[in-house]
Design brief:
7 helices, three-stranded antiparallel sheet, Guanylate_kin-like_dom, single chain, 243 residues, P-loop_NTPase, CARD domain binding, Guanylate kinase-like domain-containing protein, five-stranded parallel sheet
Amino acid sequence: MALGQKDFKRKFLRKVPGRVRLVKAVDPGCRGNGSTQQVLYTLSKRHEEHLIPYSLVQPVQVQTKRPVIFSPSLLSRGLIERLLQPAESGLKFNTCPPEPIQASEKRDKRVFLLDSSIPEQELGIRLQSIQDVISQDKHCLLELGLQSVEGLLRQGIYPIVIHIRPKNKKHKKLRKLFPRCGEDYVMEEACQAEELQLETLPLLYFSLEPSAWSCTDELLAAIRNAIHSQQRAVAWIELDRLQ
């Protein structure tokens, strides 16, 4: 069996298809019992009830530094502040501070709005600002939420999406590290909503497991490693959704 697996891997690596259909395996418990349960095709294996029947994805090798979006987005500001310190981190990372956006610009596809509880103070990040950081050969750390991912892809920007899985259901560890995130229920509701959003992205995201860190320094180191590994990896995109 081991030899057969090696031969299969060699054959697969020699010919990489331009389009790949990712298939979820049938539950073994459903085999041979006459079950009519539908086989689902997806980029992930969770929240099947929210998924389309299948996802056709294509590989994109991104040569320029890819911007980074964090989930839960409530952590973005605190993470960005820490990742830009000490000073030497600025050699690899930069950010685009949100700026006021006029009402006339809200529908501009080159403007990406932040989630705001105060509509009168709309903040956003312009495409040109992100492109300026990319031209510096740096990863642009963005405060944008997951709702901006598809818009970025339509503009030819392929962000790295890093989802930080909480260590427990109450998210107390994350709130201890980032106290400005708000009350327990705010963090919990935000995490639940974004976990559903992640499954609808036309881009494969990276999950940072709870076992990868136990303190702030370890979390930051794990994030840096994830960014570097995702930069080298192929980006799998549902290009059909962007047409």
